[in-house]
Amino acid sequence: MGGLHYNGYVYIVCHLEEKMAIYSTNEFKSGLKVMLDNDPCAIIENEFVKPGKGQAFNRVKIRNLKTGRVIERTFKSGDSLESADVVDVEMQYLYNDGEFRHFMTPESFEQYQCDAKAVGDASKWLKDQDMCTVTLWNDAPLSVTPTNFVELTIVETDPGVRGDTSGGGGKPATLDTGAVVRVPLFVQQGEMIKVDTRTGEYISRVKE
Amino acid sequence: MSNAWQPTCSIESLRLRAKLLQKIRSYFSARDVLEVETPLLSHSCGTDPYLDFFTTTYEYAAQSNKLFLQASPEFAMKRLLCAGSGSIYQICKAFRKGESGRFHNPEFTMLEWYRVGYNLDHLMDDVEDLLVFLSKESLSLSTTEKYSYREVFTNVTGLDPFVFSVEQYSAFVIKHNRAEALTICGHDHNLWLDFIFSHYVQPSLGLSGFCLVYGYPATQSSLARINIENPEIVDRVEVFFKGVELGNGYYELQDAQEQNQRFDNEIQVRQEIGCPLVVKDDRLISALYEGLPDCSGIAIGLDRLLMILTESVSIDDVLSFSIQRA
After folding, report:
1. Residue B16 belongs to what domain range?
2. Which one of A56, A197, B93, B272 has the minimum C-beta count within 10 Å?
């Protein structure tokens, strides 16, 4: 805050901590977070297109971080977008109160609550105390990404055929988070397994 | 340790480049076209509103002079033509500020040549001969295609490039999910043509062989001659392969007064849209008053040609050191 003297009055000038940077098309790099149509987005790809004689364009592939949708948008080269205050923070998943899921940063013990929309598909991989990545936009949760591999317990699956170790065929198994994955026939109820959250595929049994 | 000291291309790619240069020289030598060199630094530059120039200064005799790195060797080569050089070619570096991407490096290699006594048709045949000669060992090519700008534009989009209709152009881009074109292009016919051509027409050109597009709208004339039969078009040709622009050529404008006027018009456009100041090449204008022989000329981007011959994804793959490692 600073004082500005004018006509004998003192005007207080408040400077909001505006850290919004402006990025020009030639700074658009994969991963850059920008505001587009009032939504936070991430640049995926930026292709410079220029007719030898004529206006240059940037054809940009961009992901809307709210909806996850990927769109293509062309810009006149030299145009710019505001940066989006989007950060990925490692957090611990605490609990589900029915309406919100609660997360905490392990260093500062700061807690965040996420509604079902922000949690999205991650919900089926989240187990109490597990670490995950919470994406914050203006310090509010935007999305949740589980770790690439999670270890979960099978709460329900049909007994397999004895002696089958090939893994061929497989059967559905319900995990303690509610997720259903296909597992080999030899994997039994009560066992802990490792799953790839990006594909939803069974990786291996976990020896405790 | 950083690997930024290493070349961005393979050693094999260096060999291919050397071989390509040899073949180009043998092609022109067999046709009595003289190889020349002209300065990369010049006191003046082009006036194209869409080009941005690198500048530097030098001190001489207590004077400080601004110099431009050339965006193409065209003006100097035309001065040689006016001085009586006959047909000439040059392999040189060209510089364009702010152009960087998968198909652009701000410093790149250009092959430019001029053939005295050639009109645009002759030049197109020459371009085809050279490109096929350079690439037939590496690529299996179908016959070179030649289309007029109007023909190819209409075939792909159903729109007439010579009849400006914001309604029809808008309807087309909206239908193809690029409504942002309305904001970008507004009521600027040329911008619309650039947008539609580069997004929809160009990607479909030369998918299995070289493609030449001629007869550009007169509003995109640059240094080309207005067509003698149809004043709506200019005798300009562009070369494409697999949707990539390889070169741009003209049946060269001889009229010094008209060239001077075009430069002035472009300088005015540059001022209106806030481009950096440029210095008009009065020496080229003087040369044109002396007389440019009847000729056609073209520039081909050799890095892009190498990309095509080696099926590279990025221009970095054919450059010893791209701008990030220069």
Report:
1. 11-141+282-325
2. B272
